[in-house]
Each structure stands twice: as structure tokens, then as C-alpha cells.
Amino acid sequence: MIETRQLVERARRGDAGAFERLVRAFYRAAYAAALARTGNPMDAEDVVQESFVKALERLDECDPDRFGAWLLTIVRNRAHNMREHERVRAGDPLETMAAAGPDRTDRAVEQHELGAALTKALATLPDVQREIVLLHDLEGWKHREIAKSLGISEVMARQHLFQARRTLRVALGGPEMKEYLHG
Amino acid sequence: MDDDRVDLRPLDPTRDADRFARTVGRIMAGAAPGLVRRRARVTPIGTVVRWWRPTLALAAALTLAAVGVLVEVQDTAVATEPQTAGVAEALGIPTAMSPWLTSEGPPTAAQVFQALQEAQ
Lengths: 183, 120
Prior knowledge:
A: Arc Repressor Mutant, subunit A; 0% strand
């Protein structure tokens, strides 16, 4: 936390190195929040990129000790705006996933397919559950941090995570997926 | 509950290091103008540039206030002068002597002589 505070203060003075460290440190959390709202990896990337630039513009408004939660609020707002915009543009989110090019290895293709299946399964979750499972299982946030970021109780965060995982397992119900999920 | 986690690593945007590096590069490129502006703000020239507008606005406000006070004082002075003359006139004091009412020292002999001559 102290380091984040220092990085924010340095970034406020225009230190590019400090800002890049913030980007690297908070990218996955921001991506998780964006993916939870957009349901589309490419859109989530766009949202995260725009959000970091916007965050830099408004960095003076941020409490350096709460940078992560503050950033995620920006991400959610931008993702929400994008989703509203996208409503007029029908499309299958999975088609916009990074395409598996001819030179990609089997491993990469497998990862791509797993990613696509997970994205599809995540799409079956309510926004809040999607964000919680992504922040917890992808980014490694603690329930306390998630609860604070979303303005809910820790108990509620745990319940949402439990529900989300159960729904995901049902959605990823194929035998290959079971093998993958249980390693 | 935590042992039951779903492996979401295929969705990890930092998993492909090259791709992530490009993504960070794009963010940094987008943030570059903002960072330049922020750096400029902390240099002495940047500080002057940042403060000259509010300083100018403050100077203009002070000037307006000063002008207002001067006008007020002037109006008061103008209003006071005839009042002194009016009082002197009511008391039957010759007009030439009325400035003595507001002067700090006594009149000189020459002034008294001149005032008496004018009164005749």
C-alpha cells in the first residue's frame, strides 16, 4: 500500500516509470472488472486502456491509499458506457476473441479455446458475480478487498463467489472441461 | 471455499508476456501527453505558467476593489468640503476664514490681514 501511495504521488508529478508500474500492478484487476462488465476480452482491453489514461488525467482526485478501488470505479463506468454503446451493435463476443492464427502452437490454440469457453461460461453470470470470481480467482484479491471495492459485505462477497463457481461448473460441464478444471 | 477455485488462467491478460508488453506500451503512449503536462507543472516555469492566470485574476480583483475604495473616499471628501463651508457660513464666518476650521495650525498674520480685507 505504501508503495502504491508513492507510485501514485510520483505519477502525479509525471513520472512515467511510476505510472507504468501502476499499470502493470493493477492491469489484471482492471481487466477483471472490465471483462465482468463487457463480457468480451477485446472490449475489456479497450476499456482498461482508456481507463488508465482517464485515471492519469484525474489522478489528483484519487486517494493514493485507495488507488485500486478508485481505478476500478473508472473501469466499471467506462465498461458500462461501452456496453450501452454496444447494445446497438449486435455481435457474438466469442467471435471477437483473439483469433488463433495459423502459426500458433497447439498449446496456444488450446488456451484460446479454453479462454473462449470460460468467457462464454462467465457470460452466464450476473455482473457482480462475474467481477467477484474474476477478481478472486484470476487476480487473487481477498474477500475483504473485493467487498470494499464493490461496496458489499464480505459475507455477501463469499456467497456470490460460491454461486459464481457453481454456475461456472455447470456451464463448463463438458468432460474435457471437467478434466481441465480438476487438473 | 477457496480450494474450489475455477482455474481462470486462460483469461489472464498478462499470460502472454509479449502481448502484455504491447498493451502496456499502448497505454503508456496514450498517457504520454498527460505525463508531459504533469512534469511541466512541477518545473519552475511550469509553476509560473500554472499560477499566472489565478495571479492575474487576483490582481484584477484587487485593482477593482482599490478603485472602488478610492471612488468612495473621493465621494466622501467631496461631500465633506461643502459641509465645512456651509457650517462656516451659518456661523457668519467669512468665506476666506472657513479653511482655518479644518487647518491644523493657526493662521498667519498675513492670512488674518488678507481675510479681514476680503471681509470688508
